[in-house]
Amino acid sequence: KKIANFYKIDPRKLISSGSMLMIFDKDDFLKFQRDSEIDGIKITKIGEVNCEDEATIYSKDLDIILRDPEPDELYKVL
Questions:
Q1: Cα–Cα distance, 75 to 78 (Å, whole number)
Q2: CA 36, 42, 40: angle at the middle one, nearest 5?
Q3: Sign (positive/negative) of CA torsion 27, 28, 30, 34?
Q4: Do residues 63 and 57 touch, judged by C-beta distance below 8 A?
């Protein structure tokens, strides 16, 4: 977050090495979440797909609507 603030880039648009983004049907997600947490793997719902070309990401302060992806924010500082 400090680096993103320093370079004035959006941290939500950076490469997220070490994490995995998965899309599930709502019922399948709940089962996957329960099964994963039994194995000690934390699963967090971060958003939902609204339509074919739009998704909502849940944030502490507001919900963010994402549309077609743009280049990674990291390239702005190179």
A1: 5
A2: 60
A3: positive
A4: yes
- Count of beta carbons in the 10 Å neighbourhood of residue 59: 11
- Average pLDDT along the chain: 82
Residue range 27-46, pLDDT digits in tens: 899 899 999 999 998 888 88
DSSP line for 41-63: ------EEEEETTEEEEE-SS-E
Distant-in-sequence, close-in-space partners of 32: CB < 8 Å, separation ≥ 6:
22, 24, 43
Look at residues 39, 42, 58, 60 and name the one whose alpha carbon lies nearest to residue 50: 58
62: left (phi over 0), alpha (psi -120 to 50) or beta: beta
CB 37 within 8 Å of CB 43? yes
How far out from the chain centre does Cα 18 lie?
12
